[in-house]
Amino acid sequence: MTQASLGDSVVQKEVHAQAQNNGVAANITHTQPLWLLAEVTYRCPLHCAFCYNPTDYDKHTQNELSTEQWIQALRDARKMGAIQLGISGGEPLLRDDIEDIVIEAKKLGYYSNLITSGVGLTEKRIQAFKEGGLDHIQLSMHDITEEINNFITNTRTFELKKKVAAMIKNHGYPMVLNVVIHRYNIGHIKEILEMAEALGADYVELANTQYYGWSLVNRSQLMPLKEQIDEAERITNEFRQKVGNKMKIFFVVPDYFGNRPKKCMNGYVLPCHSARVLPNIEFPNVRDKGLEWAWKDSPAFNKYRGDDWMKEPCRSCPEKENDLGGCRCQAFLLSGDAESADPVCSLSPNHHLIEQAIEESKNPQIQAQPIIFRTDKNSKKYASGESKERVEDFHALP
Amino acid sequence: MENNIQPTDIYALAFHHRFQWEEAQNSYVILFPEGMVKLHGGAGEVIKRLDGKVSVADVVADLKATFPDAQDIEKDILGMFDLAVGKAWLRKVN
Is position B86 within any domain? Predict the structure, then answer.
């Protein structure tokens, strides 16, 4: 044991998915996956306007992996090094085999996390999860007011969420709350944090809406002002000082108001929960060649590894290692070119699209357009082409 | 030392944290909601010994006995406790 191996250098690597990666998905080492985000279903009883699931999710709800297929995927990912497991959706509790998945995760040595709206979490199920070895439950909350909770989710779930929060605490689970922040609740940050404290939250993630899927469709209606974000961050920092380590608060800064994009999955893997939007990629199916092939060898996972794919200004940019050109999905969704710089970067030739979006969100006429909620009916329209993605209007390139 | 670690203090892993050997990382790790800390060998050896009963002094003595070649490790170990308490990976038992 030497000086170098202790003290501050005790930490080779401290990984926080939430803080560093858009609040979701994976953290990746050079050669190994660490995080497996299992979106076990796209079905969901909530209709959140900011949902990042694909707008045409309805096409995929009949084609979910079976319990056995998920368990095989868990085994394969664990063999490759994955250690954190997020069981997500949609609403994972709409499946009745989460208990089996939890038991297998425990056996394999995962630190497992159920990411839920709370709808469908009963005493019986939470007890089974506890016995099965689930490590924690992340509950989404939306606001301190019933009106906004019910409006943005298009459901009556306010009271239910409070009950579920108490249930999670009663069963000795850490209380991990996730609050997606948008125009309708950003003015309530202090009250939301106070509510979290009162509920005994151990971790709170204030995830500013990022614009993918349904939230991109509703971007002008959801985007807060820059001043509101700055104020929310200030209040969060103040609150952090007050509560210290008792409640860890992550404030995920929204891309649109930063000058540089976030690194896409550390650059070593692309396929993430949004990647389905990318063009000209055939995504591997674990049913065919398995997860290890998908990770190591599939063309989809290799397409954006390294920096050979980069165009200018990224290619010669002295900062390219910091962000690896940013989010490929965002680049494609906004510019129509998945190889271009993420437009949130102030150096991107398409950065005006971001400025334009911010301006549009202040336009009362655009604001007044109705929100398109995430519903099966609306999704069918996107899936059939009856509804057009608003993003087509945004594309700068043909 | 910000957390004033005393030889008689007894620490255990914080609630909801898990310590395990991780073959893929070839090291000990601490797991907690949304995160993981990968520990150097020395730190792993310290955390491994925390069972909620042994004191900081016990850990120092045990490590000195296990690694007789290591000199002046007491300061390092206290530094490690200080960091781990500061990061809330450990909780004080006594």
Answer: yes
Supply A53's token pair.
Answer: 């699931």
Condensed to tens digits (0 to 9), the pLDDT of residues A191-236 reads 999 999 999 999 999 999 999 899 999 999 999 999 999 999 999 9
Q: Which parts of A117-202 are beta strand (E)?
A: 136-141, 175-181
A144-155 pLDDT, tens digit each = 999 999 999 999
The model's pTM is 0.87
CATH number for the domain harbouring residue B78: 1.10.10.1150
Single-letter residue type at B87:
K
Which residues in chain B are closer than 8 Å to A250, comparing Cβ atoms? 34
Residue B64 within any structural domain of the chain: yes
ipTM at complex level: 0.89
Within a domain: B84: yes
Q: What is the pLDDT of residues A240-260, one digit of tens each?
A: 999 988 899 999 888 898 888
Mutation pick from B34, B45, B59, B67 vs chain A, by most beta carbons of A within 10 Å, is B34
Structurally, how many domains does chain B consist of?
1
Assess if residue B68 is contained within a domain. yes
The alpha carbon of residue A12 is apart from the nearest alpha carbon of chain B, in Å, by 6
Q: For residues A223 and A267, is the Cβ–Cβ distance under 8 A?
A: no
